[in-house]
Prior knowledge:
α3 (40-55) crosses α4 (68-80), α7 (124-135) runs antiparallel to α15 and α12 packs parallel to α13. The chain is 37% helix and 21% strand. The protein contains 22 helices and 22 strands. The protein folds into four domains: 8-34 and 122-312, Rossmann fold; 39-118, no CATH class; 328-343 and 429-589, no CATH class; 347-406, Alpha-Beta Plaits (2-Layer Sandwich). By secondary structure, the chain is α/β, with parallel strands linked by helices. The strands form four sheets. The chain has an eight-stranded parallel β-sheet with strand order 1-8-7-6-2-3-5-4. Strands 10, 15, 16, 17, 18, 19, 20 and 21 form an eight-stranded antiparallel β-sheet that branches. A four-stranded antiparallel β-sheet has the order 12-13-11-14.
Amino acid sequence: MNLTAESPETDFLRHYVENAPHLMWFLGAGTSRTAGLPTATDIIWDLKQKYYCLYENQDLQSHDINNSAIKKKIQAYMDSQGFPALLSQEEYSFYFDLTFGKDNKAQQQYIHEALANEKVSLNIGHRVLAALMEMGQARIVFTTNFDEVIETAFAEVAGKNLSTFHLEGSYAALDALNAERFPLYAKVHGDFRYQNIKNLTEDLRNNDSEIHKCFLAASIRYGLVVSGYSGRDGNVMSMFRNALDQNNAFPHGLFWTVPRISGAEENVRKLIAYAKEKGVRAHLVETGTFDEMLSKIWRQVEGKPQTLDGKVRTAHVVSVSIPLPVPGKQFPILRTNALPILTLPVRCGMVDLDGTITFGDFKEKIIEKSPNAVLTYTDKILFWGDRDEVVKLFPADEIKSVVPLDFEDGAQSALASTFMKSFFEEALATALCHGKPLFRRRKHRTYHTVVQHHAANNPLFFGLRNVLNYNGKPGYITGNVPGLKDVTWAESVSIRLEERDGRLWVMLRPDIWITPLAKRQEARAFLRKRRLYRYNPKSYHLLDAWIEILLGEVGSGSAIKVSCFPDAEYSANFEVGTRTAYSRGGGYGR
């Protein structure tokens, strides 16, 4: 696996599928929020709202905390009282103490009502995780959550009760781990059924060490996937650091998944950096929501029992025939950023090895040798380019054969899995960059073509510079980011393949590339200013300029052939139309 702090989602998905029995999970409140239950932050705001309305004699119902103005007013009041700062770690325990004092029964009742089972609405992520637990593909799950979402999902999908280990049963958890009685589901903070609410800071300082011992013991045998957890709890983050301080910590990797990389907390980034210093394969992975991530994992799992698959996929996809409306004839015309893919590659190379190779080892070989080829790894190694570039990755005695692989249907092959889609997208991006002063880059799951700095004045980019003109003069398309040392920017366009109505399209989205990519967050103010006036007219011409750069012309509707490694034994040839898809109004029923 590519040893960078931020790892592509496809690398993570492949690693998980290959190593699922050796990876445990750690779930935070974000995984339960999709089931309709509140997170710790939601509970804090609810307590703030109740306190404010009580002591300021305000109508509770008229103070909707989903309204940002109401939130600001309530927080300003809390600040005026000298209460803990917004998002501080003391907020949770402070507002519980403020509201309930020593009334443990009232605390229990409040939490019980907030997290009541009848409020649970299971989503696909919970059902997939339950199915993976039943299949032995998610043997160990730790959580900070009070609720019974996972227990409910397991009962629905597997038809069994899931034994849950909590603070009063912490020794049993360690025994279960040592005896390999799986699945093992343990709640780090205890459970609201017990008299003391264990999720309060005062209690957390004295949290039962045995449940931590179970986690620490597991962390030298298994890797870890973290999902839905912000990392704001100092007690849990300390537990993670203690795990990392052991020998052979997380031998199958540490993967902290987030909906968006930009939303990752600073202490999470520091933990990932600390893990890497310890020699752990640690990554921050942008996966979308918990439901999106688990549904993607489920699609890649082989040998799914039909009974479990039926419980997971409660809504089945069936073929339907819904007639499309006839083409409209009215204005305005809606232009899209989609160009038709008219033909796709029909063949690639395939390497059959004597033995197996892990995806992590495969990626490391690519990093080490830097072959001039486009490669992917399914059950075999597939590639476009010269065979000599690919065979240099492996000892000669490990290569059984290098043969062509023909695609019966290029579109179906490209959409067969996320790995194959990425394979075709990389080839298309490479083909569009071929022979042009453009870099091919990748950000998370998406390929970009980026203007090379030394070629900013190349005639190829005159159209782009004219669109971005300033005071009637051609605009800049590369440069340095003000205020950031050794950080540069360049105009770029993202490239994605999408299927619509049985056809493949390439989606082009003009963007701005920041180098190094890790500094993109720090360049947000610059990016916002740079994009400020890119309204419809400018965006329209910006798309035109990029189509002309990539294909040589725009709007004629002609088919332009682009090739990835055109002179190689296994080249990838595409034909792309130059006219973007569009829609006219008034088509329905006419």
